[in-house]
Amino acid sequence: MNPRRIAVVAGDGIGKEVIPQAVNAVRASGARVEFADFDWSADRYLRDGTTVPPDGFAMLQRDFDAVLVGALGDPRVPTNIHAKEILLGMRFRMDLYANVRPVKLLDESLCPLKNARTADVNFTVIRENTEGMYVDVGGTFKQGTPDEIAINEDVNTRKGVERVIRYAFEYARQHGRKRVLMADKSNVLTHAHGLWQRVFKQVAAEFAGLQASHMYVDALCLQMVRDPGSLDVIVTNNMFGDIVTDLAAALQGGLGMAASGNIRPGTTSMFEPVHGSAPPLAGKNVANPMGAILTASLMLEHLGLKSEAQRIEQAVVAAVRERKLTADVGGNMGTREVGEWIANRVAS
Ligand code: NAD
Ligand code: IPM
Ligand code: MN
Questions:
Q1: Which of 31, 70, 121, 157 is the most buried (most CB within 10 A)?
Q2: What ranges do the domains of the chain cover?
Q3: How far is the CA of 281 from the centre of ligand 1 (A)?
Q4: Ligand 2 atom 8: the closest Cα is on which residue?
Q5: Homologous superfamily assigned to 122-251
Q6: What tens digit of pLDDT does each residue of 131-143 get?
């Protein structure tokens, strides 16, 4: 088989430091992949005003098997327009409708919950990734006056809701999971989340072997802290998925540990750590590269390179056990030093 082609967009801030460590881990695994770098970032935007070239998304879909992204966001671009065009652009324009965020505690020492075992934190959030409150439909009226009105619409389509819910059930089946839980606020958002309720029941009926259940998202937040072991696969809308996965990241040791994939089955998907560009940490060699390295592992698994993916994850587990850690998870090593240790372990 030809080598898999990976487009790399390291982006801004700590993205530029953690992504090279993820790339090194993949290289060390011996996976048959080729990388191509793209400078889509705040630096480029500030230099020439461009974000994504006119055929950029089509080019990614045509020429690459996957995209690996660091993070986008820079205080020098207060509108965040470049991040919107690059990151949300990929999600929306490439129609990457399932944002898959595994929540896996690799070692007990990382969990802020008392007496939590690794088996207690092992679930996956499937976040709708192409609609909801992220569509940027809305506007302001009488801006700057005391009568100002600001509106952001919450768009939920039958097609969008159905495909992500079906993806969650299929994901559960493929990953040996038993339960799928849908989280919404249908008690308040009766129209939009009423649709989620109806579609969830309908799709659940197609998957007799899987248990389907529901929670309001506020109750889910409580449950994630009180009894995370009761969770398996969670499917929810774009905004709630964003929020609950930061909470979930805390259970794994923090944002520095969390990985994600933006998936559209059958086409080029995009993989990124859950964390952002962390401007205060940028350029200091202190950012935790593990989230990015675990993201690369997720990407290889998606590309069918399972043994390489596992080797990388196991090397991260070993690094945690041997306390080869950055400061955010209680260590004193640098980004590069942790990355090098992991790459050496992968290669050994
Ligand atoms: P952030 O994830 O950058 O940082 C949140 C907190 O987590 C900070 O305390 C930060 O120091 C810490 N942190 C995050 N990643 C870490 C790592 N790898 N190692 C150690 N500590 C880490 O989120 P924020 O501060 O809300 O946002 C900063 C910028 O990043 C904003 O411009 C935001 O829009 C952007 N952002 C981008 C993405 C993305 O590209 N996927 C995701 C989230 C935020
Ligand atoms: C994430 C981030 C993004 C989101 C931002 C940077 C647009 O927080 O990937 O979780 O809200 O989806
Ligand atoms: Mn987020």
A1: 70
A2: 1-97+272-348, 122-251
A3: 9
A4: 242
A5: Isopropylmalate Dehydrogenase (3.40.718.10)
A6: 999 999 999 999 9
